[in-house]
């Protein structure tokens, strides 16, 4: 039995449109509605027939839904939920895909005091944005972390979990606060660092921007992919998961100072030991199917 | 006319073996000899018939060569050059592929006072190592930076440049010191940061190693690729290009502190502006053919 029959997607960007495509592929009988605050995005969604019905208001999108998923920047969740509160069916389950769970749960609960809320976070994405960037297999073999609230009924949690399994994801349950600390290190800190280094490189005076771009294959280009991620989404993530991000950043800075000192004082053994340890982490990620074993991410060489 | 007829490759790892394969593909009449200090690597090179002759000593590898290329960690160049000094033909051109040019040029000149030396650096690679990791197209459409010494004859520089063009690279000439500053930012700093963050993540107590690996698709996994690069090679790079690396690191740390402060004080506009700027850098890299336009590096999604 399908976990849901009528799914409303609020926010039709990379993730929302990937969910829509995934539902079409894996649960073709589900009736899909969608809404996006951006008129151009709605027009594109209509044109590419992303969902059965693109609504002109969030209320119209959800009025008949049994699952409503917010796929918008985490800073916009509360206001978006408040906007459709009056049209939300009493038995609908409300979920989201935000990268910060504690604050989003709080915002959703405040906007929808009586709703059944089961937040979730599919750990998947690309650096591209918009309704045309999504694809059905984005969640295959990726983890989706479901972070129930204290009052989320077990049956509702299971339905959301099953929804994500149908989209190809593996599901894990986690407390929102722990999620926010795990993601601070596996996702938020890497993005912050990538944005920073790309900014540093493009601000140099003696090394020109054109040199930075020409010789980026030496490593820099890997960082630019992440640093091309959606600016609004990531601004919101850092401001929302502020404490955990700043704490991880502090640890990173300490480690960087330590390494910097090892370089200054020529401590080759310390460098070698760290570099051997980090190589093993990569091996684990590949072994556990979280990245390709192919060299250079399998980038095409010719 | 071929730029060289008898090429000796000293060091048969990723880069050396890629050069061997590239020569076979693009200049099949060239006679190729090779040497590696590691007996196992020599045995593998024999088995896979990487070159025409795997020599048992560096001297035997170069005795008849008109081009000798050192493809070994930058800290090992001086000693390796000294070891074959007596067997180096007087008219051979000596080159290398090291990631730091000023110090390597100094070490090669000291070991080989009378030789014609034309250092070069192909800005290409993968995170894998060893003679079986190489492939002929590694240098296609990549840049190779040739950094002549004050006494490098123009004709020798042109032959080395032509050699790299035949391997598919685009060639640029640069002063060694400028090279070292450009690469400090486009290659050395990114590696240093990737090694650091992978170390930071694997040292956390409350977030387990297994969680870091499971949820690495949120961004972290991109860094682990670079942090899986050869430990000896990179230890040598940081110790050799120490001053430039430490200076770039200092700039990066300042920028990171600035961003950290913006997060702490909720300055969303500053974050948004930076993230918009960095997105444009990515666009330039893709436009200039230095990375794939495909989402997520073109990683296979199913």
Your description of this structure?
The first copy, chain A, is of the alpha/beta class and 302 residues long. Chain A folds into two domains: 6-174, Rossmann fold, CATH 3.40.50; 178-264, 6-phosphogluconate dehydrogenase C-terminal like domain (6-phosphogluconate dehydrogenase C-terminal fold, Orthogonal Bundle), CATH 1.10.3660.10. Helix content of chain A is 50%, strand content 11%. Chain A contains twelve helices and nine strands. Chain A has helices at 14-26, 39-47, 58-62, 77-84, 102-111, 154-166, 176-202, 209-214, 220-226, 231-240, 242-264, 268-287, and strands spanning 6-10, 31-35, 53-54, 67-70, 93-96, 116-117, 120-122, 143-146, 170-173. The longest helix of chain A has 27 residues, at 176-202. Chain A starts with 5 loop residues before the first strand and ends in a 15-residue tail after the last helix. The mean pLDDT of chain A is 96. At the A-B interface, helix 7, helix 8, helix 9, helix 10 and helix 11 of A face helix 7, helix 8, helix 9, helix 10 and helix 11 of B.
């Amino acid at each position: 039995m399908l976990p849901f029959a009528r799914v409303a997607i609020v926010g039709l960007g990379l993730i929302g449109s990937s969910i829509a495509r995934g539902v079409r592929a894996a649960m073709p009988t589900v009736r899909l509605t969608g809404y996006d605050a951006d008129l151009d995005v709605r027009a594109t969604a209509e044109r590419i027939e992303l969902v059965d019905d693109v609504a002109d208001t969030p209320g119209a999108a959800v009025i008949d839904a049994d699952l409503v998923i917010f796929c918008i920047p985490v800073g916009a969740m509360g206001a978006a939920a408040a906007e459709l509160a009056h049209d939300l069916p009493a038995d609908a389950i409300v979920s989201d895909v935000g990268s910060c769970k504690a604050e989003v749960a709080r915002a959703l609960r405040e906007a929808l005091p009586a709703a059944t809320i089961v937040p979730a976070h599919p750990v998947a994405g690309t650096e591209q944005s918009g309704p045309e960037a999504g694809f059905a297999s984005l969640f295959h073999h990726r983890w989706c972390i479901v972070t129930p609230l204290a009052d989320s009924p077990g049956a509702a949690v299971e339905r959301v979990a099953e929804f994500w399994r149908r989209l190809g994801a593996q599901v894990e349950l986690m407390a929102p606060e722990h999620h926010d600390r795990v993601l601070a290190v596996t996702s938020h800190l890497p993005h912050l660092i990538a944005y920073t280094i790309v900014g540093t490189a493009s601000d140099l005076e003696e090394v020109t921007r054109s040199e930075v771009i020409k010789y980026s294959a030496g490593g820099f280009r890997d960082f630019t992919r992440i640093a091309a991620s959606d600016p609004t989404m990531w601004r919101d993530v850092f401001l929302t998961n502020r404490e955990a991000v700043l704490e991880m950043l502090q640890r990173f800075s300490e480690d960087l100072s330590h390494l910097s000192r090892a370089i200054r004082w020529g401590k080759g053994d310390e460098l070698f030991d760290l570099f051997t340890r980090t190589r093993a982490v990569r091996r684990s990620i590949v072994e556990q199917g979280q990245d390709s074993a192919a060299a250079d991410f399998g980038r095409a060489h010719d």
